Structure formats: C-alpha cells, structure tokens
Amino acid sequence: MKSRLVRKVxxxxxxxxxxxxxxxxxxxxxxxxxxxxxxxxGLLTQIVDNVLHETDxxxxxxxxxxxxxxxxPVVKEALDLPNRATAGFYSAEIAMKGVFQPVxxxxxxxxMTYIVGYNGFKATDFNVHIVPFNYxxxxxxxxxxxxxxxxxxxxxxxxxxxxxxxxxxxRKLADRTSSSQFKGIMGFExxxxxxNTLWKGIKLGNTGYFFIVNxxxxxxxxxxSSRIGKQLNGRHFNTVEAxxxxxxxxxxxxxRVFFSRKSDYSGWTLVASMSTxxxxxxxxxxxxxxxxxxxxxxxLAIFLAYGFGRSIIRPVRLLENGMRQTAKGxxxxxxxxxxxxxxxxxxxxxxxxxxxxxxxxxxxYETELxxxxxxxxxxxxxxxxxxxxxxxxxxYNTLEIIICYAVIQKSSEIKDIVRSLxxxxxxxxxxxxxxxxxxxxxxxILYFMSIMKYRNQxxxxxxxxxxxxxxxxxxxxxxxxxxxxxxxxxxxxxxxEDKHTIIIDAWKEDSDxxxxxxxxxxxxxxEALLNLNTRLMNSRxxxxxxxxxxxxxxxxxxxxxxxIQMVFGQQYGLSVQSEQGVGTKVTIHMPTSSAKxxxxx
Length: 601
What we know:
- This protein is α+β, with helices and mostly antiparallel strands.
- Among the domains are: 331-384, no CATH class; 432-536 and 554-591, Histidine kinase-like ATPase, C-terminal domain (Heat Shock Protein 90), CATH 3.30.565.10.
- Helices cover 52% and strands 15% of the residues.
- Strand 6 (209-213) and strand 7 (219-221) form a beta hairpin.
- Residues 310-362 form the HAMP domain.
C-alpha cells in the first residue's frame, strides 16, 4: 500500500511534468517557427516595397524637374509659333542658358535633354547634351516617339534609351486650351547607373538577391552584371507575372523562394529571392534548443518530483498511523515534521481535532439528556397548538347556535350579521395552503359589506369593475377587505353620503397584475402621505403587525404590504396615491398567475 502510493505520486508528477514540457515545447516551437516564416515573408515584402518606393520616388523627381522647362516662356512661345521659320531668334544658346542648363546642373545624371515641336522645331533646335551622338539616328528616334500613341502628357519611362546605358524619360506637351492637342514632346536621357547604385545597396542576407524586369521580360538590373539587358526565361517570366504579390518558387531554382511586385508607376516588376536553407536556419536552431532544454528540464524535474513526493508521503504516513490508534479508542497525537508547511498545519489541525473529540465525548451524555428535555417541551407546544385549533371550532359552533335562535325568533338581521361574521372568521384564520383567488377576496368583501350595512344603517354598494377574466387569478388572502375597511374609517370620517363611492378594478401589464381600491373621500395630506409611503418602502425594518393600526380591528396597510412581499418578493406590495379633498387610490402590485407561485398566509 505504502510503496504503491509513493509510486503513484511519482508517476503522476512525471506525467504532469512531461505533458507540460511537451505541450509548451511543441506549442512554442510551432508558434515560433510560424512567426519566423511570417517574418521572413514580411521581410521580403518590406524590402520589395521599399525598393519600389525608392525607385518610384527617384523617377518621379524627374517628372518634377520637367516642370521648370514646361513653364519656361521661351519654350511656350517657340511651341506656340505657327512654324519654325518665324523663330529665328530662338537660338540653341538661349535655350541652353535659360532653360536646359539649370536642369543639367541640378541633375548631373541626365546626359541629354531636348524638346521637339509639331510646328517644325527639330530635336537639334532645343537640345543640350554632354555626350556625342548620331544626329541622324537621333532624329529618327525622336520621330518614332512622336508617332507613339502610348506616350501622353504623363511622364513615360522607356528602359531602352537612345543612348547606351540610359533610360528615356519622355512626355508630350499639351496645348493650353486642350489636353488632347499636343504641340511637341520633351525627353531626358538618364544614366541607368544611378538606379544601379540605388539598387546595389539593398541586402537580402548572405545568399539573397533581387532583380528587376520590365513588362516584356527584359532584365533591367541583376547582381550578376552579365544578365543585365538579357531576356528572362519565358517560364520564369510567366511565373513572375502570375504570382505577383505572392511568395513562390521558380522552376529550375530549387531551394529558393521568390516574391514579386509590380510598380504601377514604372511598370517594372521587382523580384526578391532568398535561400530556403538560410530562411530555415533559425527554425532549425530553435528546434535543437527546444529539444535540449526540454530534455535537461525533464531530468531535473524527475529528481525534484521524487523528492517532493517523499516529502508529502512521510507526514501522510504519520497521520495514517495516528488515525489507526484513534480508531481503536486511543487518543494519539502526531509529532510535527518541523518543516512548518501545510503538512505541519494539517498535523496541528488533526491534533486539535483529537483534543476536541476527547472533550466532545465527555459532553455527549449531557447533550443526550438535554435533547430529551427539549423533546418533551416540543410535544407540549404541539399539544397547545392543537388546543388553539379547537377553540375556533367552538366559536363557529356557537355562532351557528345563535343563527338557529335567530331563525326561531324570526330575526333576519341577526341571522345575516352572524352568518357574515362566521364566514369572515372562518376565512380569516384558515391555515391551509388552498389557492386564494380574486373571487374569494370579493366574496369576503361581500360579507363584510353585509355587516357594514347594519352598522351604518344604510345600503352602500361598491363599484366592482374587475373583468371576469381576472376572477380566477391568484392573490394573497385578506388584502382587499382591510383596504375597504380603511376607507370607511378614514376616507368618510363624517359618515357616508350619497356622493361617496368605492371602486375596485384590476388590470394586467406583461407579467404584472394590479388591483386598485379607490375612493372619493377626504384624501390624505401631503406630509402624512409621504410618511405613509416611507413606511411602506422601509417595511422590511418594521414588524409584521403594524404598531400603529390604521383603524380599530384592522390589520393595517403595513401588514397587508408585508404579507404580499413575504409571498411574492420585495419588488411587489402596496403603493398609495392621494390628494386632499379629492380621494385616495391604493394599488396592489402582484405577479400574474403564470409568473408566480402563491402560498396562502
């Protein structure tokens, strides 16, 4: 038994530690490897985006440089002339000094800039260059640009410039009055070495690289200079075009991943590549580190679990031996282990329990005798309760005898009064759990009014407006009659007059049931009304029986309110509205029959 317990605790600890290490290690490795892969994918995307952004900014800067030429009065007037023959005073020297020279000074990477007009101006009229070139070939090149319909008022980039190793940046010059009418073209010959310098500064790890191709598959930049200007493999170009904005692999390029994105401005596609082995090296290092740390931690945890298990089992064995002795009737105390931990606290509690059990055994005989005495007193109380139940029956029988004598004496008044009183007494002190309905309460008021007729020496009819649909709804017993009796006592203090009325009505709202008793008597003063409603709100602190009854023989408003709350809850009860000289309205708030369980009180 003992060895099994030690072995079981040890196995449990080993299983829990192993599960924790495996779960944390596998989950951590899986999450970390996924995050690293996402980071490398994000790195490729970020580098490509940055290069494209820098390239677009570099090219857009020349679009802004063209504005100084476009707004030049010399250029505008020359292009607005009807023909070249009238523009003899517009010399190349003026164009160079006033228009092109500032652009060349601010942008030394531009080798040539020129303007050609549709009115006869040639490229040699407005042309500034810093390298020699073939004039005839240049004129043919410019004529092709003039006929090219793909060139418009926006700056167009041609990666195959007129000059070797240059890009052509060209745009058409629109008329002032119509954006579709062109007066000429303007172009730059830009050294592509400037872009190469920009691209060479981008690093993608030890084996990563990127290259740029145009929309026809021509390689504009590659870290291998021998491939610049050559055509990209057809299958590779199709894959690059189809996998834009995705991480993919190229046929014939095993062990590498690629990411491509196309520039909306230049139309060039930038492709970044990274070695799969280099990408996965941190993941491999993470896997090895996770396994090594997991194994070392598991070995240490096993030794700790063994020692921890023994530290728990030893005090448990001491407690087990002490309990065996106590079970034999020998009150044995267990010595403390000296560790002052929870196990010592458990031993202290056990020793305290043994001491108290020893004391309790001595008191058990006294408790038995005391219980016998309490049992006799309880039987006496039950006997007295039976006697109290007999007395009302004696009263009922006596009232029946009075009714018999009234019949013999032919006194219908005495008969009606006694019969009504007999019913009211029987209804008031009934203790069964019979469900009380609205009809029962109205019948109780009927007998009450029968007695009041003789007391007041006149007939008085209550205006009952309760719908027949509500007569079988449940409510608390003895709630309506005290309210009606309260009206006779306080609402009509100077006697009943013909104008006096009492109205009883009822209605439902959602899961709430309301019964109202309303009179047109003298009403209640503002201060008294406030005091009354305050007592109803604080009724939980009042006694069940009102210490200040509202009239003689009445249970009182507070008593009715308390009994309703005892049956249905604190959110229900009475509310009083009154205006002095107008009348008083008392509303009973209860749940509907479908939302409540009534207990007769």
